[in-house]
Amino acid sequence: MSCERCGFIHNCVCEAKPLVESPFELVLLYHPNELRRATNTGKLLASCLTQVSQYEWSRTAPPVELLERIKQHDNARLLFPSENSAPLEGALSTNSLYIVLDATWQEAKKMLNKSPWLQELAQVHLDSASDSNYSLRRNQEAGNLCTFEVGSAILAVHEETSSADKLNRFFQHYLKVFQADRSGHTLN
User: How far out from the chain centre does Cα 126 lie?
Assistant: First the structure.
């Protein structure tokens, strides 16, 4: 029988899951396909980090509540690497609202291209010095981080190193548990 909260059968991670205070607001905008994937890390991040809001993206009906939040916020930024994006390190403020597209890279590009309201946002990117440790999906390009790692990296940029380290340690454990559970094994 699987745990009702984490969904794992052989290795529950609920007791190991940290809850980290965030100095910024984070919005996870999910592609509809991403919500159905067992390998999604956005929902995991939302359960470990305070000040996270979650919305489902729709090409024809943008989330009204999110549009209002963006309109009322001075420092709303889309975290998306592009020719127009600036390094996040140079765009820090104490009152930041970061919007992260939680999707495959192909889906995220589609979300941006089909959403004029997203295109209007200032774009920032992470200067990631490390490769992703995320191993649950194939065809990962070097330098691309999963959503959970993005949340941890934003904390590190905001000099919340202890909190970023807590998330990173938990995520390493989570990845081991996921692989073991998928194979029907318990971790010792």
Answer: 13
Q: How many domains does the chain have?
A: 1
Coil, helix or strand at residue 98: strand
Domain membership of residue 170 (yes or no) is: yes
β pairing state of 86-87 and 97-102: unpaired
3-state secondary structure of 163: helix
pLDDT (0 to 100) of residue 137: 46
Range of the domain at 106: 20-123+147-181
pLDDT of residue 138: 55
- 187: number of CA atoms within 13 Å, CB side? 15
The Cα 4–Cα 7 span in angstroms is 6
How far apart (Å, rounded) are the C-alpha atoms in residues 138 and 133? 12
Count of residues in the chain: 188
Of the CA atoms within 13 Å of residue 85, those in its CB half-sphere come to 16
H helix and E strand count, the chain: 6, 6
| Residue 63: inside a domain | yes
User: Each residue of 66-112: pLDDT tens digit?
Assistant: 999 999 998 999 999 999 899 998 877 777 999 999 999 899 999 99
Q: Who contacts 87 (Cβ-Cβ below 8 Å, separation ≥6)?
A: 124, 125, 126, 127
Residue 80 located in a structural domain: yes
Token code pair at residue 157:
């940029």
The Cβ of residue 24 has, within 10 Å, a number of other Cβ atoms equal to 21
